[in-house]
Specification:
The protein is mainly α. Helices cover 74% and strands 0% of the residues. Helix 5 packs across helix 14 and helix 12 crosses helix 23. 52% of the residues are buried.
Length: 454
């Protein structure tokens, strides 16, 4: 359907307002989807929403996400039951005896584990949350660090799942074919991926105190200093099994070997994280049962409870993906692009593209879908007005990175809060000021690059 005008902005506005007021993510997404369906179908809105929900649940790619996240939850629960991370925690505490050192360790690990943002976030969050508790570091800080080295770092390394996806996407754009293969184009855009670069660099500046604790993050530090609680009262339900005992720790190899198996399996099977996490789970289970760290009954209970613990995350991801379909149906992206396109000049196009796609990615939570819609529109537009194609593409990919990083309900944000063991909105609100700082730096970078190279 054609875009329906300015009313298409109503669902995202309601979502953001509702989420900020209630601090409830899932409910805000369902509300936005239903309002979008009212705009599209009137009295038949409910059945329209169910159709979109069914289409989302039937998509094989979305089923892959659910299985991967669910089994990863089971993998983490099995490791916790065996106290497998305790040896790694003890090692980190031995050599990183201050909060700043530990957060730098988390940041460095985030750069090293660049294959996939899910693997990155869930692995480091699980490994470092006990360290945070021992050193009285707010879990919100951990969530910010791992989220900022998730998608942003994957966008800067050409052998990540992000790189594979974007290379295949860029290969389909005919106006870019003269620049080489899709992977060639992706690699050439890396120096201009200003948001991913800025977001990654801002992290150590925040850790070191060069950039101060701002707003909700400052409040989180104040809470921890005054009460000793590294997370809010509402996050207790995510931390019932966190009982680190320095006198009863596992070997560090109980953590390293299953993680190495997971990473090796992911790489060997064409960066398929689902296969990798299944291999890691099998290796971990066999290893812990042989060493008698868990029984078969404990494995079974941990597997099921770990999978079930991801249910809220499933609900948020599915409702966000359904919202994307609703917003596409009412033509929100088309309305925004058509409203701005007449005022575009070659020098300004990269910066304007960054702002437009960043806003679209933020309100939809789609790192993958929005560029798929906007690349075929903005790239030919850039070619027509004489804008530099690499900078234009880099601006689109950078803004998608911002959406995945900053959106309250993107999968990266939801995974990071889950891995850190805190409420989703606690993470989203403490992170957003730093994401906006990186976005401001990126916007200035695209302005400079646009005028310098166009």
């Amino acid at each position: 359907m054609d875009n329906m005008g300015i009313i298409t902005l109503l669902p995202p506005v309601l979502i953001i307002a509702f989420a900020l007021i209630t601090r409830r993510t899932f409910e805000a997404l369902v509300l936005g989807g239903l309002v979008g369906c009212v705009i599209a179908y009137g009295k038949g809105f409910f059945w329209g929403y169910l159709d979109f929900l069914y289409a989302t649940m039937s998509d094989t790619g979305n089923i892959w996400v659910i299985l991967t996240v669910g089994i990863f939850g089971a993998f983490i629960a099995i490791m916790r039951k065996a106290k497998a991370t305790s040896g790694f925690t003890k090692l980190v505490l031995k050599y990183s005896n201050t909060e700043k050192k530990s957060m730098f360790v988390a940041w460095i690990l985030g750069i090293i584990i660049f294959v996939d943002e899910y693997l990155n976030v869930l692995t480091i969050g699980n490994a470092m949350r006990t360290v945070c508790d021992q050193q009285k570091t707010p879990r919100e800080m951990l969530a910010y660090v791992i989220d900022s080295t998730g998608v942003p770092v994957c966008m800067l390394i050409p052998i990540s799942t992000q790189a594979v996806y974007w290379a295949s996407m860029l290969a389909e754009e005919k106006t870019l074919s003269y620049l080489g293969s899709g992977m060639d184009i992706f690699i050439d855009t890396i120096p201009f991926s200003f948001y991913a670069i800025a977001a990654t660099i801002v992290v150590p500046l925040v850790i070191a105190g060069v950039i101060p604790k701002i707003g909700p993050m400052k409040k989180a530090y104040k809470r921890t200093a005054e009460t000793g609680m590294t997370y809010n009262e509402g996050s207790k339900k995510f931390n019932l099994d966190d009982d680190y005992d320095p006198e009863n720790t596992a070997s560090v190899w109980d953590f390293i070997i299953p993680m190495a198996a997971l990473i090796a399996g992911t790489l060997f099977f064409d960066t398929d994280l689902l296969v990798g996490v299944i291999i890691g789970t099998v290796v971990a289970t066999a290893m812990y049962m042989i060493k008698r760290r868990i029984t078969f009954q404990e494995f079974s209970e941990a597997f099921m409870s770990g999978f079930a613990d991801m249910f809220l995350m499933f609900a948020i991801i599915i409702s966000a993906l359904t919202l994307q379909k609703v917003l596409a149906e009412i033509g929100m992206s088309d309305f925004i692009i058509e409203s701005v396109a007449p005022y575009v000049s070659p020098a300004l196009l990269p910066a304007i593209a960054f702002i437009i796609v960043a806003c679209l990615s933020f309100v939809t939570g789609s790192c993958w879908g929005v560029p798929a819609v906007t690349i075929p529109i903005i790239v030919p537009l850039g070619a027509a007005v004489g804008a530099d194609p690499l900078i234009t593409v880099a601006a689109i990919l950078s803004s998608a990175t911002f959406g995945a990083h900053a959106c309250f309900y993107s999968d990266a944000t939801v995974l990071s809060s889950s891995a850190a063991g805190i409420e989703n909105m606690d993470h989203a609100l403490t992170q957003i000021p730093y994401a906006l700082i990186a976005a401001g730096v990126a916007f200035i970078g695209y302005l400079i690059a646009g005028f310098a190279l166009c």
